[in-house]
UniProtKB/TrEMBL annotation:
Classification lineage: Bacteria, Pseudomonadati, Pseudomonadota, Alphaproteobacteria, Rhodobacterales
Name this protein carries in UniProt: Phosphoglycolate phosphatase
GO molecular function, one term: phosphoglycolate phosphatase activity
Pfam families registered for this protein in UniProt: HAD_2
Class of enzymatic activity (EC top level): hydrolase
Organism: Ruegeria atlantica
Domain of life: Bacteria
Any Gene Ontology biological process: DNA repair
EC code(s) of this entry: 3.1.3.18
PANTHER family per UniProt: HYDROLASE-RELATED, PHOSPHOGLYCOLATE PHOSPHATASE
Alphabetized SUPFAM superfamilies for the sequence: HAD-like (SSF56784)
GO cellular component, one term: cytosol
Keywords, in A-Z order: Hydrolase
Length: 223
């Protein structure tokens, strides 16, 4: 790599951490509290990555905006309670995630960031729980942006770091991540271990099977 600054943006849920158990549990509690039929696991995981209002609109399209808002609030409360109870175990890092972050962080010209549908509170708690505070120079969350696949998160991360689109990569496990990368004009790297099927990662520059494959995938994009 040259001395040119590069920016590597990670999605969080389904990419860096396996939070599906907590997500399904919180969604189940939220729908149950309103005596609504709980969506099946596949449906719940299909919306991971979207901002919560968009997610609830997809999971409960027949419900009023008021009910959807109540579902959002119920989910937040249930997820927060679960996180307080379980700590880092709420969302364990995938195998190889920490090593990949540390390896990239040690390259002076590579900047790391996050672009996630999580809230600021949720992301900050996760980063603290896994002792990752020093690694990410830009953190883009659902509180401050339109939902994925709108390119706002990537555009803002690039603006904050001064890195060009050609030198930015988005890494994620869902169609929303790849669509967001395309909308922002940056390459996307899909990961096979997340919540969307491999077939949904259309438009990815490549798809990796393990974090060990990430450095070579980045080299292939940037050479």
């Amino acid at each position: 790599m040259s001395a040119l600054l590069r920016l590597v943006l990670f999605d969080v849920d389904g990419t860096l951490v396996d939070s599906q158990g907590s997500i399904v549990a919180a969604m189940t509690a939220s729908f149950g509290a309103l005596s609504l039929t709980v969506p099946d696991r596949k449906s719940i995981l299909s919306i991971v990555g979207l901002s919560l209002p968009n997610a609830m609109a997809q999971l409960a399209p027949e419900q009023s905006e008021t009910i959807q808002h109540n579902l959002v609030e119920g989910y937040k409360q249930a997820y927060h309670a679960n996180r307080l109870e379980q700590g880092a175990a709420n969302s364990p890092l995938y195998p190889g995630a920490r090593d990949a972050i540390e390896t990239l962080h040690d390259i002076p010209e590579v900047l790391l960031g996050v672009a996630t549908g999580k809230s600021q509170r949720g992301l900050d708690a996760l980063i603290e729980a896994h002792d990752l505070e020093r690694y990410f120079v830009t953190r883009q969350v659902a509180d401050h942006h339109p939902s994925k696949p709108h390119p706002s998160m990537i555009d803002t991360a690039r603006s904050e770091t001064g890195v060009s689109a050609a030198d930015t990569v988005m890494i994620g496990d869902t169609r929303f991540d790849m669509d967001m990368a395309r909308a922002a004009g940056v390459p996307g790297i899909g990961v096979s271990w997340g919540y969307h099927d491999r077939s949904a990662l259309n438009g990815a520059a490549c798809i990796i099977e393990t974090f060990d494959q990430l450095p070579r995938a980045l080299d292939n994009i940037w050479t």
